[in-house]
Amino acid sequence: MRYLSSGGQPITTVSGGNYMKMDEVRARAKQIGVKVSRRTKKDIIRSIQVQEGNSPCYQNRDVADCGQHDCCWREDCLIC
Predict the structure, then answer these.
(1) Residue 6 maps to a domain
(2) Within a domain: 21
(3) Number of domains observed in the structure of the chain
(4) What is the Cα–Cα distance from 35 to 12, expressed in whole angstroms?
(5) I need a labelling partner for 74 at 20 to 30 A (CA). Which of 19, 29, 33, 52 fits?
(6) CA–CA separation, 42 vs 28, rounded Å?
(7) Do the domain assignments include residue 4?
(8) Residues with Cβ within 8 Å of residue 39, at least 6 apart in sequence
(9) For 39, phi and psi rounded to 5 degrees?
(10) Does residue 35 sit within a domain?
(11) Phi-psi region at 40: left, alpha or beta (left = phi > 0; alpha = psi -120 to 50)
(12) Residue 48 pLDDT greater than 60, yes or no
């Protein structure tokens, strides 16, 4: 699943891939009830993954071994 920024534009592209800036991650978290105060991007994304019923795997393992090719965090995970 891919998300749009609050302005309806596609997520910013860097190095040929999509990633979310911190303000976009916070906005997405708030939409689904994840608290964001004083938390790192990695922690927020992992909480979003759990809230959506997924494994909190963001930056937990080698992305090359990750079988979740359509994950909306994959490109961001690759560049970090």
Answers:
(1) no
(2) yes
(3) 1
(4) 23
(5) 33
(6) 13
(7) no
(8) 47
(9) -120, 150
(10) yes
(11) beta
(12) yes
Q: What backbone torsions phi and psi does residue 18 show, to the nearest 5 degrees?
A: -105, 145
| Cβ contact 19:3 at 8 Å | no
* Residue 19 and residue 76 in contact, taking contact as beta carbons nearer than 8 Å: yes
Which H, E and C letters describe the chain, residue by residue?
A: CCCECCCCCECCEECCEECCCHHHHHHHHHHCCCCCCCCCHHHHHHHHHHHCCCCCCCCCCCHHHCCCCCCCCHHHHHHC
Q: What is the pLDDT of residues 11-47, one digit of tens each?
A: 443 344 567 889 999 999 999 999 999 999 999 999 9
8-22, 44-58, 61-75, range with greatest mean pLDDT: 44-58
Residue given tokens 């609050």 in the structure block: 6
Provide the domain limits for residue 28: 13-79
